[in-house]
Specification:
elongated; 23 strands; seven-stranded mixed sheet; about 650 residues; Beta-lactamase; Penicillin-binding protein 2a (Domain 2); alpha+beta
Length: about 650
């Protein structure tokens, strides 16, 4: 018997189908709701965010580097310029494989190990969307070869830059300083936004001190790109604000002449305008070419400069510490007059030595047999050590320190350069702290003739002698004469006057200045090497820092023939260093001068050449002009 076949339950099937349809419909509705929510979220809530991301696919916000301000001398001669160069720049965020890209670029444009190392160093210092320079100063041939292959390198482009150029090369390098690539430490201190388009910053000198003024303000442009990332057009632009132009107090012609007069020697010269504190010349020899540091000096060149025994990188005018020698005597003398310890007519007998009653040590005068009867005038004219041993003993260390500090010794002058150091005015407290020893009366005597522990910089000495020239008026030495906002007129700087050095009797200044004139005019004056007095009056004081004891040595009067011969036989580094301070004309000083020549007796001759040049005019044989002097560009101004 056959089994019966069950009849289908149509109602059940319809119910099941309906349930499935309803489930599908609910799911579809939920998905549509989720899609709507997502669309609302994208279109409304995150509209700004995704609009920005979208624009980044075809728009670039590119920072624009401001033009660095120019630097001129007081007569409008251009000292620091900007010259155009081509560089190869990379945008890291647009480069997928950096090592491969660099390898391919090297096949087109030669890249040195220094180029690669510097690039990776800067890569760490910049954000991914900042341009980083791979190679600077591309040749025309390199630019042409890369342009042919530009399409192969998205995110890499040739770009025109302005970089710093110093047309006077070695001249002025210790004053101007130089710019160089920004390092990691500097990046932490600067406004990264304002330097987003800048790779260089002032490292030394004027370039560093006035960095904020010279740099300017960054600008921006919004550029439309094609599919490969190449700019098609500029949609919007905020122009950068150029840095200020600076006019310095320096006279570049005087500076060049001083360098020529000092050429072949190690030493320093500082010339100041006494009535204002303006620095007319500041020379440290030997010097160096700051242009080497702008694009990045290679290791071989840097080591050659750093290891040179002549130390060309060392700024002797600002950082050189020298024994003042007898150049300190006019300051001690005017202090002794004011304290009432001496008068112009007081005399001593100089047997050629001085001895303290409490000690068996004998302090010798530089002249064997002594100077005989000596008053203040003759003590300065002949540089009598015994007179100043006596004066130092009678003054005592506290009063000597107070006198020297009045003239600014032992502290920074405040000049607008950051590299200055303060020098040393020794005291009992200083000796205990630094030397771990007690102060002896013999230390006081040595200080009275500028020997012992005292150290001065050429700039300090120049500032001090300017105070004597001014009869006590003091000004902060400065290098900035005027500054100029882009498109505006010059803003002159006002000299900063300091507390004056006041004495009970103003005639004390004349007494010491008259004796300093006698250094040149008197028959037995120590300024005999300065030469016969010219058409202007001058007050000077000579000094010598002895580096090696020799028989028959005479520090300030003259080398005897045998002593001079012995000096010339010594290794150069052991020969004496000579110093000279001067100002002229005495009636109305226009220049205060300090000359220091290391291991040579030529300070007086160098000083005479400089004063003659400045007060009379160029000699018949004009010093060699600086290399490739650049004519004044832009809007020159002559500032007197």
């Amino acid at each position: 018997m056959r089994k019966r076949i069950a009849i289908k339950d149509h109602h059940q099937e319809i119910h099941l189908i309906n349930q499935r349809c309803i489930s599908v419909l609910v799911i579809m509705i939920l998905l549509i709701i989720l899609l709507i929510i997502r669309l609302v979220h994208l279109q409304l809530v995150n509209h700004d965010h995704f609009t920005t991301l979208s624009k980044k696919n075809w728009l670039d916000l590119v920072p624009l580097e401001p033009t660095r301000g120019l630097i001129y001398d007081r007569n409008g001669v251009l000292l620091a310029d900007n010259i155009p160069v081509y560089s190869l720049d990379l945008l890291p965020y647009k480069i997928a494989n950096m090592p491969s890209t660099l390898a391919e670029i090297a096949k087109i444009i030669p890249l040195s190990d220094d180029d690669i190392a510097q690039f990776h160093k800067e890569l760490k210092q910049h954000r991914r969307f900042d341009e980083v320079t791979l190679k600077l100063k591309l040749s025309e041939d390199e630019v042409a070869r890369f342009s042919e292959n530009q399409y192969r390198f998205p995110g890499v482009r040739v770009k025109a830059h302005l970089i710093r150029h110093y047309p006077f090369v070695n001249s002025l390098s210790h004053v101007l300083g130089y710019v160089g690539r920004i390092n990691m430490d500097e990046l932490q201190e600067i406004d990264a936004t304002n330097y987003s388009a800048t790779n260089y910053i002032g490292k030394l000198g004027i370039e560093k001190y006035y960095e904020d003024d010279l740099h300017g303000t960054v600008g921006y442009e919004q550029a439309e790109n094609d599919a490969s990332g190449q700019a098609l057009r500029v949609l919007n632009q905020i122009k950068p604000v150029p840095g200020k132009n600076l006019y310095l107090t320096l006279d570049s012609k005087l500076q060049s002449f001083v360098e020529q007069a000092l050429a072949g020697h190690r030493g320093a010269v500082v010339a100041i305008q006494p009535a204002t504190g303006q620095v007319l010349a500041m020379v440290s020899e030997p010097s160096y070419d700051p242009n080497l540091f702008v694009a990045g000096i290679n290791n071989k060149e840097f080591q050659a400069l750093q290891q040179s025994p002549d130390r060309p990188l060392y700024n002797r005018a600002l950082r050189g510490l020298y024994p003042s020698g007898s150049t300190i005597k006019p300051f001690i003398a005017v202090g002794g007059l004011d304290a009432g310890v001496i008068s112009p007519n007081d005399t001593i007998h100089d047997p050629g030595w001085y001895k303290l009653s409490t000690s068996s040590r004998i302090f010798h005068d530089h002249k064997r047999g002594g100077h005989g009867i000596v008053n203040l005038y003759r003590a300065i004219v002949t540089s009598c050590d015994t007179y100043f041993f006596t004066l130092a003993h009678n003054l005592g260390i506290q009063r000597i320190d107070a006198i020297l500090e009045k003239f600014g010794f032992g502290e920074s002058t405040g000049v607008d350069l950051e590299e200055e150091i303060a020098g040393v005015v020794p005291s009992p407290a200083w000796k205990r702290k630094v030397k771990g020893a007690s102060w002896y009366e013999g230390d006081t005597l040595n200080l009275g003739i500028g020997q012992g522990f005292m150290q001065v910089t050429p700039l300090q000495l120049a500032t001090g002698i300017a105070v004597i020239a001014n009869h006590g008026k003091r000004f902060v030495p400065h290098l900035l004469l005027a500054e100029q906002q882009p498109g505006k007129s010059l803003e002159m700087q006002t000299p900063a006057q300091q507390d004056p050095v006041n004495f009970h009797d103003p005639n004390n200044w004349n007494i010491v200045i008259n004796a300093m004139q006698g250094v040149v005019t008197a028959p037995d004056g120590t300024g005999f090497r300065f030469g016969k007095l010219g058409p202007y009056s001058v007050a000077i004081k000579t000094g010598t820092a002895q580096n090696h004891s020799i028989k028959n040595y005479n520090a300030d009067e003259a080398f005897s023939a045998s002593a001079y011969e012995e000096q010339s036989k010594l290794p150069e580094k052991l020969r004496d260093t000579t110093l000279l301070v001067a100002f002229a004309p005495v009636e109305k000083p226009q220049i205060a001068l300090v000359v220091i020549v290391e291991n040579d007796a030529g300070a007086s001759q160098v000083a005479r050449q400089i004063l003659d040049y400045y007060l009379i005019g160029p000699p018949l044989v004009v010093p060699v002009a600086p290399v490739n002097p650049t004519k004044v560009q832009g809007n020159p101004h002559v500032v007197h």
